[in-house]
Structure formats: C-alpha cells, structure tokens
Design a protein that fits this description.
mainly alpha, 6 helices
Amino acid sequence: MAYTPPWKIACTGAVLVVAGVALFFVDWELPELVAFVAMLLIARGALHAVTLSFVGVTGALSALQAGAEAAVGLTLLAWPDPTLLVFAVVVGVLVLVQGTVDATVVLATRAVRPHWPVHLGADLVQAVLGVVLIARPSGTVHGTALTLGAIAVLAGGVEILTAGVSSRVARRADVPRAATAAAAVSV
C-alpha cells in the first residue's frame, strides 16, 4: 500500500497486532467475534484511508482496499445475526482478495521494493488463510478466531516492517541532502 509517514503505518500495524493477540486469547461467542472483527475492519479501513497516498495505481488500489475493509465491517455490523459460515465466508473472501491483489502488486513493483520476497510470502500466507476461512464450513468460533488472529498478527507485522524499512530508506535519502546542504552553506 502507498503510505505517507512511516509512523502512521506503524500505528496501523500495531492496532492489528494487538487485535490479533486479543483474537488469540479471548474466549469468543459468535456475536462478540462478529462485532469485534467488524469494528476492527472499519477502524483499519479508516486508518488506511487517512494514511495512504493516492498516487498511481498502488494508491488507487490502496483506496479501494480501505473502502472494502470499511464496507465489509459495516456489512457485518448491519447483518442481524450472521451465522459462522456467513461470517467466515465474508471475511475469508476479503482476506483472499486482499492477499491476491497485494501479491500481484508486490510482484509488479518488486524492482522498487526492498524485501519484496517477505511481502510476497506474507501475502501468499494471507491468501491461504483466507481460503482456510472459506473452506471450513463446519469450523468452530474458536478456530475462526485463531485464524483471524493469525491474519491480523501477520498483516500488522508486515505493516510494521514496511514502516521500519520506509523510515530507514527516508533517513538514507536525507543524509546525502544534508551533506549537500552543508557543503553549499560552507562555500
């Protein structure tokens, strides 16, 4: 995704990691799980919407992804009583599509992405976990929560990694500019 300051994406990633840990350790009932994931998707969509850059194809895809997350979250909140199957399929399709689109973007832009194999691997794992959610029609609420927790921790970790790499790249780019500015002032 195309983001602005690295600290904003790190905050978004941290929210996901904390939510993922909560998904691992809380004993969820289905209505609670649906509400929690719905609010998480709305919050994540909103955070992405305010932190992304609308530059180029990557920016457009990022905007669509943010909108899709918020829309799925609102749909889950508005649904009267979704069954576990409906919940798992709706969220699983979102995760599968996001993983597939993100992997495609990573492959298309790998020349300008440091550590692109890590991103590609995480996107493929995310897509597989989306398929796991969809393919388990007789799964349990606990199993669904664990799968969603793994997805959240993985996606949050990748966002934090991306923020760290972006921050390092920005600092390296600032060093030559600072040296050039100092040389110009001393002349």
